[in-house]
Amino acid sequence: MDYLPIFLNVKKQLCLVVGGGEIAKRKAGVLLDAGAHVRVVAPEIDPALAKMPHVESIVARFEAHHLDGVTLIIAATNDRDVNILVSRIARERNIPVNVVDDPELCSFIMPAILDRSPLMVAFSSGGASPVLTRMMRGKLETIIPQNYSRLAAFAERFREQVKLRVSSPAKRRIFWENALDGVVAEKVLTGDERSAEAMLQQMLASEDNIVRGEVYLVGAGPGDPDLLTFRALRLMQKADVVVYDNLVSKPIVEMTRRDAERIFVGKKRADHTLRQEEINELLVRLAKQGKRVLRLKGGDPFIFGRGGEEIETLAAEGIPFQVVPGITAASGVASYAGIPLTHRDYAQSCMFVTGHLKDGTMNLDWDALARPKQTVVVYMGLHGLDTLCSELVKHGMPESTPIAIVQQGTTQNQRVVTGTLATLPGIAAIEKLQAPTLIIIGGVVKLREKLQWFHPQPS
User: Does a cis peptide bond (omega within 30 degrees of 0) precede residue 118?
Assistant: First the structure.
């Protein structure tokens, strides 16, 4: 970090603004909103600034004695010599100083502020890009409504009561997350605080509601963190334990809550850290301990992710669970490779198949796969590529049919290798491709040459 982000209490404290123009007026307004008393010093002072309540106006050039009794200083003049003088004297007296648009003279940065008091969000680029900072604030303005201030005040009102009733910090965090991300919060946000309070008291009276465990089966998408859903991100920040496997990219794992326990369960070909049955049992055991468990799965949990097997076990054990769909590899990887899965001229249907079954063979419905005007997407098919290509040709698909293999699709390490059913097995061997890969077969692969420069770029 270039700066230590802190929130400073300046209520009833005297703060100095050097400058009397529009920028000075804006900075004084921020200080007044924070409850400060403001002294303004400048040879000329905007009348509107001078008339602000709790503003002491001094029409004069800045001198050192104007800092007497001051807690914080903002210099907002267009005279750099004056700004340098203000900064030097402030630093000599160990008074925090900000010089507008001149980071070298600052001991602190004035951030862009999203005010939902008592909830406050501050943004700063350390002076590198104020425009980008304001853009980021604008984005959050749209997803943190104004009435979140009401929700923060509600939580503050009951904070001590909850602390007395729920002694464990871990359980208390879960309690508040359940309250602030559920029906209680919805009632507060719509103005029905009486119902919200009754629900909160009911939660406090029930120990089960405090310690109840839950499992989130979340699709992490094909690799690029930008492809996560909003709901996935929200649950990733709530979970106490993260259970993830080899198909989840490291940047996505790093987006989970920092203090959450992380458990790697493997799931490479022929090298499983835990068998699927053991993973199912692990999810149940953790949930019964009262933990919120994030089962993070590459792609979509219900498309060759074995999510159905996991929720069968959870349902049988009475464990509450949520399933969050993810962008499956077929959709995400094909898009980033510049290959549309369907196209009026090449394919009116698309089939997803897995390249290996439980017994390790590739016993597929070859006649169905070899139909014309169809795209076939093969998950986990790299090690059976020779068999895949030869069987499709044997069942009527032309040897000249285009085929692509995408390795680590949607990530910065993405590789795309193309050929035909006749040539690709040899090309793949030369290129030494490694899992994870996705195989796309059909006429749509021809479009990659035309469209590859227009596909999304991995983050």
Answer: yes
* pLDDT (tens digit per residue) in 412-439: 999 999 999 999 999 999 999 998 999 9
Active site residues: 245, 267
The whole-angstrom distance between residue 413's C-alpha and the CA centroid of its chain comes to 21
Report the share of the chain in percent with pLDDT over 70.
Answer: 95
DSSP code string of 252-295: HHTTS-TTSEEEE---BTTB-SS-HHHHHHHHHHHHHTT-EEEE
Topology (CATH level 3) of domain 14-110: Rossmann fold (3.40.50)
Domain ranges for the chain = 14-110, 148-200, 214-327, 330-452
Classified as helix, coil or strand, 117 is coil
User: Into which CATH architecture does domain 214-327 fall?
Assistant: 3-Layer(aba) Sandwich (3.40)
* CA distances (Å), origin 225, targets 93, 298, 422: 46, 11, 35
Structure tokens at 82: 């004056």
321, β-bridge pairs: 215
450 Cβ partners below 8 Å, 6+ apart?
Answer: none
Q: For residues 378 and 396, is the Cβ–Cβ distance under 8 A? A: no
With vertex at residue 15, the alpha carbon angle to CA 10 and CA 18, rounded to the nearest 5 degrees, is 150
Right CATH number for 330-452 from 3.40.640.10, 3.30.950.10, 3.20.20.70, 3.40.630.30?
3.30.950.10
How many other C-beta atoms can be found within 10 angstroms of the C-beta atom of residue 128?
A: 10
Answering whether pTM is above 0.70, one says no
- For the packed helices 385-394 and 424-431, what is the interaxial angle rounded to 10 degrees? 170
CB atoms near residue 291 (< 10 Å): 21
